[in-house]
Design goal:
CATH superfamily of the largest domain: MoaB/Mog-like domain
CATH architecture of the largest domain: 3-Layer(aba) Sandwich
Strand content: 25-35%
Strand order of the largest sheet: 1-19-21-22-18-14-17
Number of strands: 29
Low-confidence stretches: none
Bound molecules: adenosine monophosphate, magnesium ion
Number of domains: 4
Distance between the termini: 29 Å
Largest sheet: 7 strands, mixed
Structural class: alpha/beta
Mean pLDDT: 96
Length: 406
């Protein structure tokens, strides 16, 4: 705890715990949308099967439906063909002992039948269908409810709706679904040195690149970007921009101005218009990360170094978005072996940009990028994973197992 009254220089786990607690207090409301609109949204309520799936016993193959008890144990037996039932047919003929009906995949089993013999295994002549021994009673039938029984939990609350979830909902006849409202994120880049791309650079100026990146990360996380802007390092301008953004967003994210430099005004500004929940995390990159609240919005002040901005977005805002939407699925931890030895210069937790490859034995290897500088965008573009090296250990040998941030 710092003299200022909020946690400072805290460990990553504590920081994530604080974000989780605050985000859970900012759970997004539930709304009803169509299945098409539900893609990528998080289910607000559990869905139970309103009817069995499949709704009726049906054939898994194209063939002939008959009674399993009629199947020959040895030799062969002739059945009388009494009709046919195709998928979608409004009616299925009754089939008595010694009889069979032609059936297609997905068609309802005719009353009296419990077995389908595939058409490749029979001989047919007029209305005589001959079946040899070796067929199994009950084969090739999909029982009503074998996928989902009526009342089964089909999708748990907090599940993000992907293609598979949407298919289950549709198959269960559900056209509209309760989901969390999409989170709205406002993005603010700060810095006197920043010039928008497309404009020439003057002395000491650089092109602004965090705003478009953070907005893209927000959209990749299925959030709505409510505003994107660039603000100078002036306390009044920053204050106005933050208040403006917070009026229309669930999360306000800024980049730059959170360290200890002359022009790093954001911690002070945040204290005058809101509340600080923590400042500075023992993390590399991302040490100066600032977290707090402005009115009803959560606020993340990310460091300006582009890599630090990207990594802390994925770390903290990705995490907050899940909590705000009540996501209940836990990302499966993935691991990799380090393809090269590694030396951490600090004890701080580190998120190292790595490229992954899987060798012929199925072992996943992570090769740390040679340029780990938090201002170096190359390390972001040329890698595909973040390896989390926890606080403490500083020496890693080739082959050591590391956790990949989901
Ligand atoms: P700051 O966190 O404001 O001290 O900035 C750290 C470094 O990141 C400085 O070199 C800044 O010029 C750079 N930087 C800050 N904001 C951006 C931005 N939006 N786009 C590109 N670089 C930035
Ligand atoms: Mg700055």
């Amino acid at each position: 705890m710092a003299e200022s009254g909020y946690p400072s220089r805290i460990g990553l786990e504590q920081a994530l715990a604080i974000v989780a607690t605050r985000a859970a207090q900012h759970r997004l409301p539930i709304e009803t949308v169509s299945l098409v609109e539900a893609q990528g949204r998080v289910l607000g309520e559990e869905v139970r099967a309103p009817h069995a799936l499949p709704p009726f016993d049906n054939s898994a193959m194209d063939g002939f439906a008959l009674r399993g008890a009629d199947l020959p144990a040895t030799g062969e037996r002739a059945f009388t063909l009494v009709g046919e039932v195709l998928a979608g047919a409004a009616f299925a003929p009754a089939v008595a002992s010694g009889e069979c009906a032609r059936i297609t995949t997905g068609a309802p089993m005719p009353p009296g039948t419990d077995t389908v013999v595939i058409k490749e295994n029979i001989a047919i002549e007029g209305d005589r269908v001959t079946v040899k021994s070796g067929e199994k009673s009950g084969a090739n039938v999909r029982a009503a409810g074998e996928d989902y029984a009526k009342g089964d939990l089909a999708i748990a609350a907090g599940t993000p709706a992907g293609a598979a979830e949407l298919a289950v909902l549709a198959a269960l006849g559900i056209a509209d679904v309760s989901v969390r409202r999409l989170p709205r994120i406002a993005v603010i880049a700060t810095g006197d040195e920043l010039v928008p791309p497309g404009q020439p650079l003057g002395f000491g100026q650089i092109h602004e690149s965090n705003a478009v990146m953070l907005a893209a990360l927000a959209r990749e996380a299925h959030a709505i970007v409510s505003a994107t802007r660039c603000v100078r390092d002036e306390p009044e301008a920053l204050r106005d921009a933050l208040l403006d953004a917070a009026a229309d967003a669930d999360i306000v994210v800024s980049s730059g101005g959170v360290s200890a430099g002359e022009a790093d005004h954001l911690p002070n500004v945040l204290q005058t218009i809101g509340e600080i929940h923590f400042h500075k995390v023992r993390l590399k990159p991302g040490m100066p990360t600032l977290f707090g609240q402005i009115g009803a919005s959560l606020y993340f002040g990310l460091p300006g170094n582009p890599v630090a901005s990207a990594v802390t977005f994925r770390l903290f805002i990705g995490f907050a978005l899940r909590a705000m939407q009540g996501v209940s699925t836990i990302p499966k931890p993935t691991h990799a072996r380090l393809a090269a030895s590694l030396h951490k210069r600090h004890a701080r937790a580190e998120l190292t940009r790595c490229s992954l490859h899987v060798d012929g034995d199925g072992v996943r290897w992570a090769t740390p990028h040679a340029r780990q500088g938090s201002g170096m965008l190359r390390g972001l573009v040329e890698t595909d994973a973040l390896a989390l090296l926890p606080e403490g250990t500083r020496e890693y040998a080739e082959g050591d197992i590391v956790l990949l941030w989901p």
